[in-house]
Amino acid sequence: MTFAVGYVARTDIPAASPFRALYEGDAMLAFMRALTPGQLVFRYSEPRGSLNVTVMREGEELGWHFDANETVASILFRRAQGGGRFDWIPGARSAADANEAGVAAILAGEDRHHHSFDPAPGDLLIFHGHNAMHRVTPIVGAPPRLIGLMSFDNVAVAPPNPSSKDLMAEPRTA
């Protein structure tokens, strides 16, 4: 799997940013809770994964994966010339069944049952990625694709995500 993406973490998004204000405000949390009545919804407590803007340049992609948290609300800020399609396979695993054979088949290229969405700038996508396998296809051309990700979970304090430290790499300029 290929994971090639840059991102700006919550800690680097100015407090006065409208995007950060949206995520940290009561209205967005109330909206997310209204979408899933009877379920617990909290802002994701993991500092690097809770709010970020991903930057994907030509040839970069996000391979098939699951999210550590329950739900992500994303807003496409800028589309690249091509690529950047969001593909997903709902219910690829569950709390009761990790479906290791099915996941291995998807990773081996047997993804014929996936759904696709090619967002336009301003589109809001709310996605439950904890049990749905998903990816972003390779970026083609310029400018870099920019998408804001606001993460939510079903627990107030999530267990530490050891992989989040691997997300921090040497900074590049856009």
Shape: globular
- Please state the average pLDDT score: 89
Tell me how many strands there are. Answer: 12
* CATH topology descriptor: Jelly Rolls
Helix content: 10-25%
Overview of the molecule:
This protein has 174 residues and is of the alpha+beta class. It has one domain (6-154): q2cbj1_9rhob like domain (Jelly Rolls, Sandwich). Helix content is 14%, strand content 30%. The chain has three helices and twelve strands. The protein has helices spanning 18-24, 26-35, 100-107; strands at 6-9, 42-43, 51-56, 62-65, 71-78, 82-83, 86-89, 115-117, 124-128, 133-136, 139-140, 145-153. Strands 1, 2, 3, 5, 9 and 12 form a six-stranded antiparallel β-sheet that branches. It has a four-stranded antiparallel β-sheet with strand order 4-10-7-8, with helices on one face. The longest helix is centred in the N-terminal third of the chain and has 10 residues, at 26-35. It starts with 5 loop residues before the first strand and ends in a 21-residue tail after the last strand. Residues 167-174 have low confidence and may be disordered.
